[in-house]
Specification:
Blueprint lengths: L10 E6 L3 H12 L1 H8 L3 E7 L15 E3 L2 H6 L5 E4 L5 H12 L3 E4 L2 H18 L3 E2 L10 H8 L5 E7 L2 H13 L3 H10 L8 H4 L2 H15 L1 E2 L15 H10 L1 E12 L5 E12 L11 E8 L3 E8 L3 H20 L17 E2 L9 E2 L1 E8 L4 H11 L4 E6 L8 E8 L2 E2 H12 L4 E10 L4
Parallel strand pairs: 1-2, 1-4, 2-3, 4-5, 5-6, 8-13, 10-19
Antiparallel strand pairs: 7-9, 7-11, 9-10, 11-12, 14-18, 15-17, 15-19, 16-17
Helix pairs in contact: 1-12, 4-5, 5-10, 7-8, 13-14
Amino acid sequence: MSSDVAPRDPIGVGLIGFGTIGTGVAKVLQRNAAVIEKRLGSPLRLVRIADLDTETDRGVEIGDIHFDSDARGLIADPRVDIVIELIGGYDAALKLSLEAIDAGKHVVTANKALLALHGKAIFDAATRKGVDVAFEASVGGGIPILRSLREGLVANRIQSLVGIMNGTTNYVLTEMEKTGEAFEVVLKRAQELGYAEADPTFDIEGIDAAHKLAILTAMAYGAEITFKEIPTEGISGVHPLDFEAAREFGYRIKLLGIAKAHGDDADRIEVRVHPTMVPADSLLANVDGAMNAVEVVGDAVGRTLYYGAGAGALPTASAVVADLVEIAREIQRSTSGRVAPLSYLPDALEPKPLVPLGEIVGPCFLRFTAVDRPGVLAQITGVLGEHEISIESVFQRGPHGSQGSVPILVRTRSASEAAVRSALESIDRLETVTAKTRLIRIEEGL
């Protein structure tokens, strides 16, 4: 039987940024061209690439694809229907994205930093021009977490969203726990293996996770929020002793991005990034190495988990090409904006008050460093008691009977962050305490 359906015209794609992810996108488009066309109904064709480096061999057959350093020429090219922005950073990426939108081109990006800081401006511009902005690859690499929030969980009130959102920090914490080595030793190895950048600041200080959490929070709660508003703490202060304590108490340590609703209509939202002790038998506790996972709890669906490779050329390229296909389907329908970029319609997004960190209540782990002599432990626990902080368990590591410093490891019962911080300020001023106390929050119920 012959088909009367006429073949559809190719949809043209322009790629700005031909680095690791850009190379992956080109490979996926070439390798899977036939299956993509079968699913889409028309060819998805890479017609132009722009990158400042036009000399390096990326191991991809360019063929008749126009390849130069002229990003603005790419945007103006009438053959380009969709522009992919993969250059990273803020300023240049923002200018090019807005120029593409102003030219009536749809935009796909993997740039979570850009969206976390300038997302509102980009989405507003896209709404005015009637074009789409897609960004699945910006959070979780190949994990379809954004599409799940925007579409699969659209009927739910999101009660909480908690995740391991950075592969570098998860690898470092996993290795520290396994080997007992210091943070600096494991980080150096991560850099040698390519898991960490030469300048790992964005990863290890939690900034990358905060970028991602800002996007997820907007999608989960319709909140206008930038990553700068999110209380953020990295992993550089985590010590091998903390893993011993976690094991003793039945926990593992993960860098988590946490967002929770307060009130039936999420009148306020709790948003934070920090190292966290999670129950050792929980799903998130057992996500190791460079993998990512996000747990979302909805009022109707209950607990759901999204797990996979959070970075890498091909997993991230998979998400970029999925965005291309979604936009291409809308082009074929001669419409755009079928699904709001952040799940909520742009005019429904609103500023929401964040729950101050001091109001958050929960148990925590405290690592004190104090001189080893009688009465010191009673002194510390006395200050905790004055601030109405109860102790669940306590134990001490290191030599006894000397005047040297030893670690005292405490697991508290639930207390407010403000009370704990106030107590630690008093304790750290004691003459018998020889180093700043380390606090790691404990997240129950995972």
